[in-house]
Specification:
Elements (H helix, E strand, L loop, with lengths): L6 H57 L2 H11 L11 E7 L4 E4 L15 E2 L2 E2 L10 E4 L5 E8 L5 E9 L8 H42 L6 H7 L6 H64 L3 H24 L6 E4 L3 H17 L3 E7 L8 H19 L4 E8 L3 E8 L6 H8 L10 H12 L3 E4 L11 E8 L8 E4 L1
Parallel strand pairs: 9-10
Antiparallel strand pairs: 1-2, 1-7, 3-4, 5-6, 6-7, 8-14, 10-11, 11-13, 12-13
Helix pairs in contact: 1-2, 1-3, 4-5, 5-6, 5-7, 6-8, 7-8, 8-10
Length: 489
């Protein structure tokens, strides 16, 4: 029950309970001590009475004067504790251990044997076994004392017997409890208000700290640190210090998170900018080559027409690819055709000529290539340019475009350094993601994820000779309209 209550209530109740338990404990201990002291006082009183009976009973035993013995016991036994209540009695025995006279004739009958038999439920010793004073305790708390009476020549002529019942030793609990209860009541009256004040004083800073913690996330952390109270108590001061350190750490962490989010936004902007620049620069070399071809051979109608168509499709690709790179872009695009592969090969030939790389292409089952042409052209151009760089001077690159019932696939193989699937994944998931030698690969991966396709490296044992590295990109086919227009999200 107490743990559910506030400290301002727990403390006074705890003090009152502690005082009450302390008073009860002290009362019990005091009662035990008082009972032992009272028992010793009773034993001492009985021994004094027996000493008096020994002195005054000696001549009565010599003359066997029973009546005077009764009169002596009646006057002397009254000195025994609680004798009037029948809790104590005394008797004078003859030399054979028979009752000569007793203060309670019904329980100590005259003339009957006492020593060596059971008297009032207690077995008394034989006369020969009582050479001196003897005390016998019973398990019920009662007590019996026997003392021999000797003549002047030290001959045993009789005995004095005294019995004290257990009731005579019982402490007066009412007398003991009254001062204890009064003390407990006074202590509770004084300590409960003091405990209430102490509880409020202790609970106030704890409540303030709890309120400060409850406001985390709703109030500025710097202001919360000022709300944490200053306390003098060492333990509470440690708690307050820990709360302040927690708030300070959270403030620093919050500032770091804000800086990290800002840096991440800047990095995202940088990646988009780099991607746009990369994807614009890729077809520019081919377009510049086309313009030179147009300048040199523009008089031929067929050459002029093919070159102008290539430049138009390349510029259209630059216009749409920037929108396609945006995550939320909605781009209208056409289905890809076989001529798109020819355009990509033409745009990549400038880089191939620069590095003396032989580029070949294979087109298989191209009846239905219904995938977004701009996205797929970007990927094909990226993979071709990366393969030309990877193949090195005098190398070979082969591009294969194929289609089946579900997807359109583009595979590029080169004779350069081997790139395994693990190496491709490491490059794609590099921390900066803008490796100048593999930025186009990262863009291919992003397009594959966005359009539900795939991008992977072919296992080495499945690559035909003389090629050493093969990368595969595929996109699922889209249901298209008669005008061959697609909406790419």
């Amino acid at each position: 029950m107490l743990p559910r209550l506030p400290y301002r209530i727990q403390i006074p109740l705890g003090l009152a309970l502690a005082v009450t338990l302390s008073v009860l404990l002290v009362s019990v201990v005091a009662a035990q001590i008082s009972a032992r002291a009272a028992r010793q006082d009773i034993v001492t009183t009985v021994q004094r009475v027996m000493a008096l009976l020994v002195v005054q009973g000696r001549p009565l035993l010599a003359t066997e004067d029973t009546w005077r013995a009764f009169e002596l016991l009646r006057n002397t036994a009254a000195l025994l504790p609680d004798a009037g209540k029948g809790y104590a009695r005394a008797a004078i025995l003859d030399a054979d251990g028979r009752f000569l006279a007793g203060s309670d004739p019904q329980r100590l009958p005259t003339g009957e044997q006492a020593l060596g038999v059971s008297v009032n439920g207690r077995m008394l010793p034989l006369a020969k076994d009582v050479p001196s004073a003897r005390t016998m305790d019973s398990g019920d708390g009662s007590l019996a004392l026997i003392q021999p009476i000797r003549s002047d020549d030290e001959k045993v002529i009789g005995f004095v017997l005294a019995e004290v019942d257990a009731a005579a030793f019982a402490p007066d609990w009412a007398a003991l409890a009254t001062p204890a209860l009064i003390g407990a009541a006074l202590a509770v009256i004084v300590l409960v208000p003091l405990g209430w004040l102490a509880g409020r004083r202790m609970a106030q800073p704890i409540a303030q700290m709890a309120n400060s913690i409850a406001l985390i996330g709703r109030v500025d952390l710097v202001k919360l640190q000022q709300l944490v109270p200053q306390v003098r108590d060492p333990e509470l001061n440690r708690i307050a210090g820990a709360v302040r350190r927690l708030l300070a750490d959270m403030s620093v962490r919050q500032a770091n998170e804000q800086r990290a989010r800002s840096a991440e936004r800047l990095a995202a902007v940088g990646r988009i900018t780099a991607a746009v620049a990369h994807e614009i620069n890729n077809p520019l070399a081919g377009l510049l080559t086309a313009t030179r071809t147009l300048r040199l051979h523009g008089d031929a109608p067929d050459t002029r027409l093919r070159t102008v168509d290539l430049i138009e499709r390349g510029l259209h690709q630059i216009r749409t690819m920037t929108a396609a790179l945006l995550p939320q872009a909605r781009v209208e695009d056409r289905c890809m055709t076989a001529s798109d592969l020819d355009d990509v090969i033409t745009l990549a030939r400038a880089a191939a000529t620069l590095h003396s790389v032989t580029v070949t292409s294979v087109l298989e089952n191209h009846a239905d290539l219904c995938v977004p042409s701009t996205v797929f052209r970007q990927v094909m151009l990226n993979l071709l340019l990366n393969a030309i760089k990877a193949a090195g001077d005098g190398g070979q690159v082969q591009a294969a475009l194929s289609s089946d019932a579900q997807a359109v696939r583009f595979v590029v193989a080169n004779t350069g350094q081997v790139m395994s699937s693990d190496e491709l994944q490491q490059r794609l998931h590099a921390e900066d993601r803008n490796d100048p030698h593999g930025f186009g690969l990262w863009i291919c991966h992003e397009f594959a994820v966005r359009y539900g396709g795939g991008f992977a490296a072919t296992e080495t044992d499945a690559i035909p000779l003389p090629f050493s590295t093969s990368l595969s990109f595929w996109l699922p086919k889209h249901t298209h309209h008669d005008d061959k227009t697609l909406i790419a999200d």
